[in-house]
Specification:
- The protein contains 8 helices and no strands.
- By secondary structure, the protein is mostly helical.
- The protein has 2 domains: 1-97, Orthogonal Bundle (Rna Polymerase Sigma Factor, Chain: A), CATH 1.10.1740; 115-206, Arc Repressor Mutant, subunit A, CATH 1.10.10.
- Helix 1 (5-26) packs across helix 2 (33-47), helix 1 packs across helix 6 and helix 6 (130-142) crosses helix 8 (157-205).
- It is globular.
- 21% of the residues are buried.
Length: 206
């Protein structure tokens, strides 16, 4: 807030991962996660001085992330990008950008690559109501404590614990239902294949 850009870059890097989870919980499927993370970073850079209570940083940053995700959902057509983490902070500032001030480290995606099973569970989790989807993603992707998630969402720790428990239960139910549906489809294919083959043979015989 005092203009220390190195500190701001470090702050962004330490919070970027959970911000990605918030965006994933609210963005439309077609929106690009990295683009939205960039939008949030630029807003953080532009508006950090407006934050009146430093203790409210996490809920404030979450609101920025939610707004970016929801704005993406309202856009009917993508326009040209006017700013970027690789652009100067202002048209008259030729100093290093926020990305350049961040500690050097190998490039990594916002979220770790997932196995097929993890991707399937992620798809099911994204179908949950946002009251359960968001805390569940924060817990699963970032391994945050209930207290940390409560600080981000502005909710009591007990509420977070309850929502995550319910979210996990609903996710298990959806996963079991999806698995049962897949098993039924496989059974139908196994049963109908021999009949299809016999019909084909009978046609040739006729």
């Amino acid at each position: 807030m005092a203009g220390d850009h190195a500190a701001l870059a470090s702050l962004w890097q330490s919070n970027r991962r959970w911000v990605a989870a918030v965006i994933m919980a609210h963005k439309p499927a077609r929106a690009d996660l990295d683009d939205l993370l960039q939008d949030v970073a630029m807003t953080l850079l532009a508006k950090i001085s407006q934050l009146q209570e430093p203790a409210a940083f996490h809920p404030w940053l979450r609101m920025i992330a939610m707004n970016a995700a929801r704005l993406a959902g309202r856009k009917h057509a993508a326009g040209p990008r006017l700013s970027s983490l690789d652009a100067p902070i202002t048209p008259h500032d030729s100093g290093p950008t926020l990305a350049e001030r961040a500690p050097a480290r190998p490039h990594a995606p916002a979220t770790a690559p997932a196995s097929d099973e993890a991707r399937r569970l992620m798809e099911l989790a994204l179908e949950l109501h946002e009251d359960y989807r968001e805390p569940l993603l924060l817990r699963a992707i970032n391994e945050l404590s209930y207290q940390q998630i409560g600080s981000i969402l502005g909710l009591p720790e007990t509420t977070i614990e309850t929502r995550i428990a319910r979210g996990r239960r609903m996710l298990r139910e959806r996963a079991h239902a999806a698995q049962a549906a897949t098993s039924r489809r496989t059974s139908v294919e196994v049963v109908t294949e021999p009949h299809a083959a016999r019909i084909s043979v009978d046609s040739r015989t006729a």
